[in-house]
Write a structure and sequence with these properties.
There is one protein chain. The chain is an alpha+beta fold. The chain has 7 helices and 8 strands. It has one domain: ECO RV Endonuclease, Chain A (3-Layer(aba) Sandwich), CATH 3.40.600.10. It has a 3-stranded mixed beta sheet with strand order 1-3-4, covered by helices on one side. It has a 3-stranded antiparallel beta sheet with strand order 2-8-5. The chain is globular, with a radius of gyration of 19 Å. The chain starts with a helix and ends with a helix. The structure holds a DNA duplex.
DNA sequence: TATTGATCATGC
DNA sequence: GCATGATCAATA
């Protein structure tokens, strides 16, 4: 339909116009200045600044907060599998905080290749690259507070400690071994201490390629890597003064 | 009520 | 289908 196309093109132009309003930071310092500028502001106000409608629920807009903050901080990775701020090597993550000040959800890291993780080193993995430098932006997520009224918190520029990295690496290697040896189907979300692997697809009928115990290609449920809320809670506790 | 498994939107 | 951004909701 022609009008659908016109609308789509209009929305794309609008998106580009808004994106260009927010400059991509050149340094970590610039990035932090911009992020601190968002702290204390409400999602409704931020949405207004880039002419976006605030959804009444996230049922059909699950990535809305992340995309809003991305735009306001000028990320430049688009949907490539690189850190959000390509030049800085920094990944942006919004993190929903409940009324007790704890993460409400796990944090998605990246999708997983289920065909060939054997022979790879953790250092070269997408998990390692994404987690090497993360800008955490806490956002209130109390369901009793209207979305537009929810506040953005103080940003945290973070890298994993050696201890954290050891655990994450061990988790990753555990999963990598399972995948490489044909045990994709036995992976459960209950495995992994800090990392976890869970379905990541349109729905339970989604299928991607994997390998079975004989090394043959099979269709299997796509999966992604996530950080457990237990881990992100620890991370926030270590880096923010107790309330 | 915390966690696991399922699901939504969008771009290419 | 796979990558990005995540939250929803059934269940243990």
């Amino acid at each position: 339909m022609n009008c659908v196309r016109l609308l789509r093109d209009f929305l794309r132009q609008e998106h580009r116009r808004m994106s260009s309003m927010f400059k991509t930071p050149e340094t970590e310092h610039e990035l932090m200045e911009a992020a601190r500028g968002l702290a204390g502001q409400r999602l409704g106000d931020l949405a207004k600044q880039c002419h976006r409608r605030v959804p009444t629920s996230f049922h059909q807009s699950k990535g809305w907060v992340g995309q809003l903050i991305e735009m306001m901080l000028g990320t430049d990775a688009a949907n490539r599998s690189e850190p959000d701020f390509v030049k800085l090597g920094v990944e942006l993550k919004t993190i929903p905080i409940d009324h007790k000040g704890r993460p409400k959800e796990t944090t998605f890291i990246c999708t997983a290749s289920l065909t060939q993780m054997g022979g790879w080193a953790y250092i070269d993995s997408r998990v390692c690259k994404k987690l090497s430098r993360v800008l955490w932006v806490p956002v209130q997520a109390d369901p009793d507070t209207e979305i537009g009224q929810r506040m953005v918190g103080n940003p945290l520029l973070w890298s994993p400690s050696m201890d954290d990295e050891r655990v994450i690496r061990a988790d990753w290697e555990y999963f990598a071994n399972k995948i490489a040896n044909g045990y994709v189907e036995t992976i459960s979300a209950s495995e992994g201490e800090y990392l976890q692997m869970r379905p990541k697809g349109a729905n339970s009928k989604s299928r991607g390629w994997g390998i079975d115990e004989d090394g043959a290609s099979v269709k299997t449920s796509p999966k992604g890597f996530y950080l457990r809320a237990r881990f992100t809670a620890k991370l926030l506790n270590e880096n923010y003064a107790a309330i």
